[in-house]
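Saturday, quiet lab. Running sequence design on the structure tokens for the scaffold JK sent over.
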């Protein structure tokens, strides 16, 4: 995911990313990795989501 962000942002921008696990559901099949990025513009956010989908990581609906 960090590589996908780097792909769309280029080397000129620096972003703070965070990772955490959501394990609140009793069934472990529904646990999730929560990835956050601070300060993305709307344009870059859309490009990032498109890049994630292209590599097989579509966002949750």
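Result came back. Writing it out in full:
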């Amino acid at each position: 995911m960090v590589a996908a962000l780097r792909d769309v942002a280029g080397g000129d921008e620096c972003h703070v990313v965070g990772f955490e696990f959501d394990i609140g559901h009793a069934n472990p099949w529904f646990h999730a990795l929560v990835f956050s990025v601070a300060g993305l513009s709307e344009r870059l956010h859309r490009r990032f989501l498109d890049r994630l989908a292209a590599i097989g990581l579509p966002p949750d609906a």
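Notes for JK: The two ends are 18 Å apart (CA to CA). The mean pLDDT is 89. Ask whether to fix the surface positions before the next round.
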